[in-house]
Amino acid sequence: MRTVSSGVVRGFLLGLTAALLVGGVIVAPSPAQGVAGFGDVDEDRYFAHAVQWMVDNGITTGTSAACFSPDDPVTRGQGATFLWRMEGEPDAPAHGFDDVVAPYQQRAVSWLAGMGSVVGATQTAFYPDRPLSRGEFAAMLHRVAARPAAQMHPFTDVTAPWQQQPVAWMVAESITTGTSATTFSPGDTITRGQLASFLYRYKGSPGVELDPSSPRCDPPSDGLTLRHVGEIRGAITPKSVVFSGVDLFFAQNMMYQHTITVYDRSLSLVGTISDRVVLSEFGVAGANPGTAYWGSPVEAAFTSDGRYAYVSNYQMFGPGYSRPGEDSCSPGAWDNSFLYRVDVESLTIDQVIGVGPVPKFVAVTPDDTKVLVTNWCGYNLSVIDVSTATESARVPIGRFPRGIAVTSDSATAYIAVMGSRDIAVVDLNNLGEPLSWIKGVGTSPRSLVLSADDRYLFATLNHGGGVVKIDLANRAVVGSAATGVGPRSMSISDDGTAIYLVNYHSNTFSKVRTADMVELQRIVTPDRPIGITYDPQTRRVWIATYGGTIQIYEDTLP
User: What's the CA gap between 510 and 503, in Å, rounded?
Assistant: First the structure.
């Protein structure tokens, strides 16, 4: 580390972790010159010292572990968060804005509102996702500083009365010199680098030590291109393939193989798990003592540490199981089925948990306390208590419940109801409460994924030919992409900039940019692509095809 005087620095923007990613183009990294721990912050750029100061003071962590994205735009919600962090994260009474839903923005916007600094807002709307202009930021910062008086500024393009004093004050305090000698560009969106510099100068441009480390700053997923890198064949008929979150991939091969096949990142088979169980050994009431039963693995979900996998079985085979349910069914006297827990270290089934008829999708809540299972022919949701390995509740949902997405605080579950145009909203802390709904998203919603900040929900439409983006603040569809016939399973990149989904009847899969819902790629696959999963470390997409293959694609630079 070498000590460097403050110098002229300007701009930064936020650094909210991957959950706060802003769409846009990331500047190509310069590993030899990167500083402040970011590969895209060159030491000779004007904002280098400002970014280092922000890192040192906990104001930013970058848009990822290795990227700051200095040229990306700042939203109003992000700008509020930066100001709040700069001032030490003070508490304030709750705000009254209906459109501020991101957890990380709540206290920041409340504080800004309490300071009277919410420029550009109404009584009920803050517009957190709207780009923050340079003029708006000047006014916000001026109000945070208690609105000091100042003389005239030299900029001919600053004409709005409410911007006069803020911009004049910034000039007087050497916070800005404008975009030229006579312009400030108040209507331009402020960038992360510019914001960093303004905050740094506002605090007096303190001396910092530039950290010379410069890890590789990879571009965002929506700036990469998928290419085929591998294929797995064998005795498989995968209905789904699911990444453990650590280093393994589970393929569920239904009743056609009665197996779960397990692979590592080298595409090698590391184990095959039979779905054969002796139910009496797991204490299942009514099971014939010592008799073997078979399942039909369909979907899987893992605990947060990847230690255990929960696998649903479409139906059971053995004595007493003669009414297994089917794809077209109504609630009736169907056989209930079971959820298997698999010990990932030993690749053995160590728990068998009763659920409803024809269980489909499985989700483990982020806090690892519950497992949720949609029961296709039961029209309901099984809620499993992980601590007791028992079904604690069965929640009525509607015709053909399928995909599940759970918020990061484990409080809310969204359930796709394929026999409708709606998505059910379940309060996991109050299971006895009536459901609420997101209505009219499109025909046959099937697979669901959430953005990392829980702001947007994405849903494939099995009979709608694409995927929709839902703003959860107002529960309305705000974007869509037409992809192919029979969109089914879906996954999302770790940086949230791209979603990947399979189009079952088109024999294709699609990559869609989440910012504007533009389909970036559509790639032909072998027969009937049905399952998909994403490995963030390798940026690889694994696709299960019902015809008996797993296809592997990697997101790489064009």
Answer: 7
Within 10 angstroms of residue 351's Cβ, the number of other Cβ atoms is 17
Structure tokens at 385: 């208590």
CA–CA gap between residue 455 and residue 262 (Å, rounded): 33
What is the C-alpha to C-alpha distance for residues 303 and 276, in angstroms, rounded to an integer?
23
| Amino acid occupying residue 158 | V
3-state secondary structure of 105: helix
φ, ψ of residue 88 in degrees (nearest 5)? 95, 20
Per-residue pLDDT of the chain (558 residues; tens, 9 = 90+): 223 333 322 233 333 333 333 322 323 333 335 788 898 999 999 999 999 999 999 999 998 888 899 999 999 999 999 999 999 999 999 999 999 988 889 999 999 999 898 888 999 999 999 999 999 999 999 999 999 999 999 999 999 999 999 999 999 999 999 999 999 999 999 999 999 999 999 999 999 999 987 777 888 999 999 999 999 999 999 999 999 999 999 999 999 999 999 999 999 999 999 999 999 999 999 999 999 999 999 999 999 999 999 999 999 999 999 999 988 999 999 999 999 999 999 999 999 999 999 999 999 999 999 999 999 999 999 999 999 999 999 999 999 999 999 999 999 999 999 999 999 999 999 999 999 999 999 999 999 999 999 999 999 999 989 999 999 999 999 999 999 999 999 999 999 999 999 999 999 999 999 999 999 999 999 999 999 999 999 999 999 999 999 999 999 987
Contact call for residues 186 and 142 (beta carbons, < 8 A): no
What is the domain class of 221-556 according to CATH?
Answer: mainly beta
In the block, residue with structure tokens 């569809």: 477
Could you tell me the end-to-end alpha-carbon distance of the chain, in angstroms, rounded to an integer? 35
Which H/E stretch holds residue 2? strand 2-4
Dihedral (C-alpha) 448, 449, 455, 461: value to the nearest 10 degrees? -40
Q: Which residues contact 427 (CB under 8 A, 6 or more apart)?
A: 411, 412, 433, 436
Retrieve residue 227's tokens: 């290419």
Distance CA 69, CA 24 (A): 9
Q: What is the helix (H) or strand (E) element at residue 262, kind and residue range?
A: strand 259-264
In whole angstroms, what is the distance from residue 503 CA to residue 498 CA? Answer: 16
Domain spans, the chain:
2-210, 221-556
The upper half-sphere exposure of residue 88, i.e. CA atoms within 13 Å in the direction of its Cβ, equals: 3
Q: What are phi and psi of 547, to 5 degrees?
A: -70, -10
Q: What is the SS3 assignment for 14?
A: coil
What's this model's pTM, rounded to 2 decimal places? 0.75
Q: Is 168 helix (H, G, I), strand (E, B) or coil?
A: helix
List, edge to edge, every strand of the sheet that includes 348-354: 297-302, 308-313, 338-343, 348-354
Render 520-551 in DSSP notation, one character per residue: EEEEE-SS-EEEEEEETTTTEEEEEETTTEEE
Cβ 103 vs Cβ 408: under 8 Å = yes
DSSP states along 356-381:
-SSEEEEEE-TTSSEEEEEETTTTEE
